[in-house]
Amino acid sequence: MTQIQFNSALLGLRDKLHYYALSLTSDSERADDLLQETMLKALTYRDKFTQNTNFKAWIYTIMKNTFINDYRRNVKTRNTFDDSNNDFHLLFSKDKVYPAPDSFYSTKEIHKSIDELEDEYRIPFTMFLDGYKYKEIAEELELPLGTVKSRIFFTRKKLEKSLHEYSNN
């Protein structure tokens, strides 16, 4: 495959790749970034493409792997409540950083609120904070995946409410 044929085939898949990127990211800007990164990698590693193999599958695999690697990188740096529409965010760090004196009481209140939850909510939520994925929690607790997701969601709402009441005192 010549450089021109390669570039033509790559550009011919652009719209389909963009649609696939949207299905992976559910966000237009992130999909554009993923598409751009995928096309750059395809051009950079053109020599790795094996002649007479499925070009489309090769490109889609690059995109999928790029998405997975970005997701894993972002999970390591995520906040506990990333997608919250409220002004209230809890940041839990796995690093042992000594808190400022005025924030120490807040941290105690947060942990106290978590400890006061019923086991059915506290255990999955604590596992989630410890870095377990929803699927891992579901398997460990022998619960359906949807149940785990809803319990974590409702726990967030309960904590948000109890800690919001605390901040208004």
Walk me through the structure.
With 169 residues, the protein is an all-alpha fold. The chain has 2 domains: 3-85, RNA polymerase sigma factor, region 2, helix turn helix motif (Rna Polymerase Sigma Factor, Chain: A), CATH 1.10.1740; 99-167, Winged helix-like DNA-binding domain superfamily/Winged helix DNA-binding domain (Arc Repressor Mutant, subunit A). Helices cover 70% and strands 0% of the residues. The chain contains 8 helices and no strands. α7 packs across α8. Residues 92-99 have low confidence and may be disordered. Keywords: DNA-binding, Sigma factor, Transcription, Transcription regulation.
Name the CATH superfamily classification of the largest domain.
RNA polymerase sigma factor, region 2, helix turn helix motif
Shape: elongated
Question: How much strand?
Answer: under 5%
Number of helices: 8
Name the CATH architecture of the largest domain: Orthogonal Bundle
Q: What is the total tally of β strands?
A: 0
Please identify the oligomeric state: single chain
Q: Stretches where pLDDT falls below 50 for ≥5 residues?
A: 92-99
- Main pleated-sheet profile: none
Average pLDDT, rounded to a whole number, is 79
Count of all domains = 2
Q: Can you write the helix and strand succession as a string?
A: HHHHHHHH
Q: Percent helix among the residues?
A: 55-70%
GO molecular function: DNA binding; sigma factor activity
Keywords: DNA-binding, Sigma factor, Transcription, Transcription regulation
GO biological process, one term: DNA-templated transcription initiation
Protein name: RNA polymerase sigma factor
